[in-house]
Structure formats: C-alpha cells, structure tokens
Amino acid sequence: MASYTRFLGLRYGFSRQRSRFTALVSLASMLGMMLGVASLITVLSVMNGFGGELRGRILALVPHAYVELHPKEQQAAADQKTDTTAELSAGLLSHPDVLAVAPFVRETVLFSGPYRQQGASLTGIDVEKQSGLTALDEFLLAGSLDDLNTDFTVILGAALARMLGVIPGDEIRIVLPQVSTTPLGLFPRSRLLRVVGLFEVGAQQDALLAYVSLNTANRLLKSGGTRGVQLRTSDLMTAPNLSHSLENEINGLGVYRPWSETQGSLFRAIRMEKITVSILLLSVVLVAAFNVVSTLVMAVTEKRRDIAVLRTMGATPIGISKIFLTQGLALALLGVWAGTVVGVLLSIYVADVVDFFERLFDARIFDPSVYFISRLPSQLMWGDVLVVGVAATLLSVIAAIYPAWRASRIAPAEVLRYE
C-alpha cells in the first residue's frame, strides 16, 4: 500500500479503459509537450550556431583587446618625440596572460572609387606581427600581407571593394579627415592608394575595414588617428577581465579596451534575441503543460467513484493528490523525454535535414551571397537542454497541482449517497 499512489497514477494515465476523448486529450498534451521541448532545443541550438559563426568571423579580425593611448601620448607618438608604443608593448609583454602585442593606427576615412564613395575604418598594422594577433592572412582572397610593405598600398574588404568597383591592381583615392592649406583655400587631404589584396570573413567587417602598413598610415595621417597597441591574450573569453591586472603594465599611458567593449553591442543583441525567442517558444511549452490541466480535470471527473471508494478504504487527501500528480507528471515527463531526444537529434542533424529539403524542392534556403553561410549552423549545448527540460517539468508540476487538489477535496459521502 505504500506505493499505491504511484501505481494508480500510472494506471490512470495509461489505462485502455479511459474514454476515447480523454485518451485523445492526453495524447494531445503529451505530443504538445514533445513538440514544444523539441522546438525550443532545436531553435536554441541554431541560435548558438549563428552566434558561434558570427563570433568566429568577426573576432577573426579583431584583437582580443586594445590599449588606446591618451591624447597627449598619441600626439607625442605621432610627432615621434617618444616611442610610447614600444615602451607600452614591453610592459604588456611582461604580463603572463599577454601573448603578443603590436602597434596600430586607426582612423575613419572616405574611399572614392569609380562608381561611388564609401566610408570605412582604415587601420595601420605592423605587417610582421599581425599574424600573431589576428587571422587576417587566413581570410585573404587575393594578395598577401607582405604586399603592404610597399608604401601607399591597401587591402580592402571584399564587400567594400565591390561597392567601390575596384579589384587588386586598381588605384583608389582616400580622403582623410584633415585639410591642406593651398593658395586656393582649404581642401581635404587625399591620396591615391593601390589595392593589393582583398579579404572576406562573411560578416559586416567586409564592408567596413581596410588595412595599410603602419608606415603608410603614419605618412597618411601624420598627427591624426587613434594610436595604441593591439593585444592577444591567452584566453579570448577572459580578456575583458584583465583590465585591473594590467594597470601596472599600462602605467597610465592609455585605456584598456577589450573586444567585448568594441564588439560587445552585437553579441549583447544576439544574446537578447536568444532570450526573447526562448521566452516566446517557452509559451508553446506552457500551453502544452496546461493541457495537462484539461487531462487531469477530465480524469478526476471520470474517477469520482474510485476516489470515493479509496477514501472509504483509508486513503488520505494527500494520497489522492499524489495519484493525480503522478498521472499528470507521467504524461508530461514522457513528452519532455521524447521532445528532448527529438530536439537533440534535430540539433545535430538540422543542417542535413535542410540540405535534404533543398535537394527535394530544388531550392536554396541560405544563399551564401546573401547570408554569408551555405549551411544552417547548429551548436548543441547541454546546458540549454537541461534548462529546457527542468523548465518544462516545473511547468507541468504547477499545472497538475490544481486538479490534484480538487480531487483531494471530493467528499466520499456525496459521491456514494445514491450508489
């Protein structure tokens, strides 16, 4: 008798003696839970995949951190009165978490091509040290970083080159945010640069970035532009937390800016979108969970006589509640487990499923020229699976409480009065 609540709860939940309508509602609630859990796990995995793609593409060209010199130090570095970046680099390299350091110069400029003008961020880099900081050389479609050793040459993002209508070997005019004084008045400073290479990472950087050598950047910008050093740390994810530990090495010469600050808005937007979509899809699980209420309410109505008989045999109100809680949780957990299995399998093979439908209907869902990807990315995270499973189970428990409580309140005398 100690386990009668579990035995009766499972029997009521899966007995063939139920009415067809009650069985249909039970099946619907279980399938709804399964579909809700599977959809939530799959969508979260796809969003993790998109986030990973963006992180891999964007951060491939972004150093783990920058140290931007203070304006006074920038002016001194531009005038070459003191080699501030060399002093700063030596100090930073003494820190155990800093693996590589290189100076940079950056400014927003205007490129003028045969067809249109386009603004972009021009970065002057140390060609010899850049490979140790970013993966720029791995994404080059044409040319090499060594080509930048020739003065007044530039490597453009592929999208930026298409907008400007230039290819490697062409010359392009760059307009700087500075003016030159001439007998005819003030004119913006400009210079012709020769395009020697193109890079493409499949993200917004392809339309926003251009690279020149540090020597070319200094000759172009002279006293203008942001100056400092780029850093590569031992761990990308811990780079935002190194600000305090690098205070002595920076020695007040500049400001530490990790990648989470320069690119953080995009990844915060992705995280917020993931949370929003999760909440919306959780509503599907919520609807499925509260279908358990309908199932249990009908089960309680059908089993009023059984409840009355059990009460006369000594069953307590708490025992009656446990019977229907067990019934509701059995149906819900079966749906949660089935949904988890389906969701995990879909998350692993979703790219193959999409490829199958593309071949079946002879259509292209993800055009690489539009979405920068050719396959649907997916990254299964077991933490997401655990959270979804626990959330669905808790919602099922909450939904089952009220019908179970109502069952415990049934008075045996009223039910058996006319029997």
From TrEMBL:
The keyword rRNA-binding does not apply. The keyword ATP-binding does not apply. InterPro entries: ABC3_permease_C, Lipoprotein-release_system, LolCE_TM, MacB_PCD. Residues 26-237 form the MacB-like periplasmic core domain. The chain crosses the membrane at residues 21-47, 275-301, 329-351, 380-402. It is a multi-pass membrane protein. Its main location: membrane. This is Lipoprotein-releasing ABC transporter permease subunit.
